[in-house]
Amino acid sequence: MPDYPQTHRIKSKPSRFGLFHRALVSEFAGNGLLVFTVLLGIVAVSQLIRLLSDAVSGRIAVDGVLALLGFSAMNYLPVLLSISLFISILLTLSRCYRDSEMVVWQCSGTGLTRWIRPVLWYAVPVVAVIALLSLVLSPWALQKADEFKNKLESRDDVAAATPGTFRESKQADRIYFIENVSAGSNRVGNIFVQAEQNGKLGTMVARQGLQETLPNGDRFLVMLNGTRYEGVPGQRDYNIIEFERYAIRIDSVPVKQAQPKARTMPTPELWRNPTLWNLSELEWRLGLPISA
What we know:
Helix content is 49%, strand content 21%. The protein is an alpha+beta fold and 292 residues long.
């Protein structure tokens, strides 16, 4: 008889984690991602509305909205992750009881203590991320947000002006309106400036203008081919003056140093300076991962 080679049965290596473990971790992660996305969207939209309102009113510059939105979202991440972790586990366990899946697992010999391992396998990495965000990244984001706000507030009136809106100068002695600003150049269009000089109220309008910087650092808003209205209409001292070039000095504002706050201080510095405010901030940062 021919000697045929015998086949050997290959034994499959048992998986480290069974079907029960993989199914639970997968469902935890799916529910957590869904809840986190919804919560982050709600927070982002609410913060965006607030920042856009501040930009329209002139309290912050339009080009700083996205940066401040990013810093604000990073500050909320630890809280959102903690809530998402709790809700995702709650939704999964509730569904198992509602669909009688819990009874099936118990009848197959899976006790309640077997649920601890998949829950910890899912929760421990999330808690580690929450601790990293709460202790390191969130204070850094708040500090950078304060520095960015101070930088925006230190900009001069023309640079901080929002195109198409009226804005009062930081000295409260002028009102600016610039309809459009050319990107990448110093040209501006449709300018309106109202200021009081020598006890007289003056209004200047021009179709176009530009921003000039002298070698000594002084900056000017130069209005070209415009008109100046001085005084009150109807009175004898009311004057209308046509000009080809009218320069208005732009007062610069020094950059303010951000005052150290407990919420922006690094965690080791809070530990080294155990004041009441610092200890309360430290307890809040440590409480987020512990509560999760």
